[in-house]
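Expect sequence, tokenised fold; for instance:
***
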Amino acid sequence: MKRQTFIKLLFIAIIIVGCENAKKTKEDVVSTKEEMQQVEDVRSDTLMLTAMKLTDKEWLEVKSSYDKLVNALDEIMSGDDYEGSLYVNLSGIATSNDVSLGGMMLYYKLKQQGYQFLPDNEYVERIKYVFGIDYNHLDTLNKNKFISYKDYIVALNPMSNIDSEDNILSKEFYPYREHLYFFKKFNLCTVQMPSVLLIEMDENTNKDNINVCGDSIDYHWNNYVLNDNKISLAWLLNNGKEKELKDLLVNFGYDKDDKINELVLNDDNLSIMDKFMGRDIYGKPKIHEGILRFVERLSDENHSDYFVKASTFVEQNCIYS
């Protein structure tokens, strides 16, 4: 995009946001109690994976992965540098096979919780619609931001200010929580690395009696992101997943949900540029047109002409490189 064009567009965006900064709707970003009462309680302390049918070989792989990751976790947590974080990143230790096994565990967990998986073709379409990832052209993905494996794709942290490109390229897994894992094999996605540590294992555990942690995060994440379920969006908003939801817009350009648009607009930590502009997953400049339309709907009649000017300017003058 030409520098002059960008400066003009940014100025118009500032005017739009300045005009009452997209007045809050009657419906808060955080869902009402009535919405939350509709959320089906899929959580339990533990779930038994009764639908899971592992061969002896697969069970040995699961146990081996479990032992390796538990030992690594114990070593990290007992070290002098451990600061008591609830989230311990094991992505630099886990192999792609460990992650694939974790994806399988997550699949059976969601199945046990009653999650409705999309058919293959609808999953591919939805991933492209939300994230811009085209499974038919994975060879064109930016390798600084995505790594494709046999069973899954991992989205690396796209925030360039966190680390240098050299460091990104030198790590198999970029060590931050903003990972996203896409499992075409199981038609699901998750916001952090899955592993067999989902299992509750002791000396009495066997392949026909597997219990896993029964939390609801992955259920509601998939139910919203893939099934567009607004009740699950309400659950995520009320259970500390605002950052992950805002990342859908800021990092992937998903500007098609008004609640996420409003969440981003009201985030004082985000710049005007981050709110209204970004780059798609291939690095091409992209205007968040959905959030501009959202501003138009929420603005007074006295201010709606600013949106008209902005959208006309974008249409006539924006030049993409």
